[in-house]
Write a structure and sequence with these properties.
Radius of gyration: 18 Å
Structural class: mainly alpha
CATH topology: Na+/H+ antiporter like fold
Number of domains: 1
Number of strands: 0
Strand content: under 5%
Length: 294
């Protein structure tokens, strides 16, 4: 089992190596399969029913959807269409597959975050094929079908496979706990590839305005701060850290893939920046927990 300090250091190293090795962008297609693998393990270990839902989790889902349009509107006000789309893709991302892992390192209620993860990922994945054509300004059925196929592969295929395996081989639900460090490694590799992809784009697109980059970073940072703060308010006294993590730590690798596939690498910098910001906050939280326990 990795120590809290090792996890904190690993996050920062993954970002640094990705920034220094833009050549690794050639392996960016692996991001999709890494996401699917992490989601499969989370779904495999999830014990969840509709009866286990807490009212605050429904509020978190509504806030998640609302923040996507806050990002869209804020982006239009600050920098125009590309910044708006970057804000939308950062805001619409559901709870991250790694959020239950982080909350377990913090010794909080993993079941709450896992249930929120399932709820937000399933509902938002179902809505995205309808929302994205409207946001992108293209309403043709071809785009709807392509987005639905991408979402089904990334979210619903791991979910269906996990449910099937749990039914035919119940002991499989114990695998995620045993493979915890492997999941963390997959997460670090995903961060590395995301940063390498962003680094390659920034190095090869000399015509991209620095002002636009700053606007995307600013909008994304505002969304990130608002999510963690609003989540803590929604969680109240019962689940402050859990709700904050559920709304703040996002499955941005999922929306990053969609942004690259259906918008542009510039727009994909929105979820990329969010990955940087929420993982910097995660690294600080893990560092703080490590200091408190030693």
């Amino acid at each position: 089992m990795l120590s809290g300090f090792a996890r904190t250091a690993a996050i920062l190293v993954a970002f640094l190596l990705g920034a220094l090795l833009p050549q690794a962008h050639a392996a960016a297609d692996a991001i999709q399969w890494l996401i699917m693998g992490m989601l499969f393990l989370v779904f495999l270990g999830t014990q969840w029913t509709l009866q286990s839902l807490h009212r605050s989790q429904l509020v978190l889902l509504a806030a998640n959807l609302a923040m996507a349009f806050v990002g869209l509107g804020l982006g239009w006000l600050i920098g125009g269409r590309d910044v708006a789309l970057a804000g939308f893709f950062a805001g619409i991302a559901p709870t991250a597959a790694a959020a239950p892992v982080i909350i377990s390192f913090m010794r909080r209620d993993v079941a709450y975050v896992t249930a929120t993860f399932v709820l937000t990922n399933v509902v938002i994945a179902a809505l995205l094929p309808l929302l994205l054509p409207w946001v992108l300004g293209s309403f043709d059925t071809t785009l709807f079908t392509r987005i639905a196929g991408s979402v089904a592969l990334l979210i619903f295929a791991p979910l269906a496979l996990a449910l099937l395996l749990r039914r035919i081989h119940p002991p499989a639900q114990l695998w995620p706990a045993r493979l915890r460090d492997l999941s963390f490694g997959a997460w670090m590799l995903t961060l590395f590839l995301v940063m390498a992809n962003a680094s390659h784009f920034l190095r090869t697109q000399a015509d991209v305005s620095r002002l636009v980059l700053l606007e995307i970073a600013a909008v994304t940072l505002l969304i990130c701060v608002a999510n963690f703060a609003l989540g803590r308010l929604i969680g109240g006294r019962a689940f402050p850290a859990e709700a904050s993590q559920s709304l703040g730590q996002k499955n941005t690798s999922f929306t990053l893939y969609l942004a690259l596939a259906y918008a542009s690498p510039l727009v994909a910098l929105g979820p990329t920046c969010y990955i940087l910001f929420h993982n910097l906050w995660n690294s600080w939280q893990l560092h703080r927990v490590h200091r408190q326990n030693h």
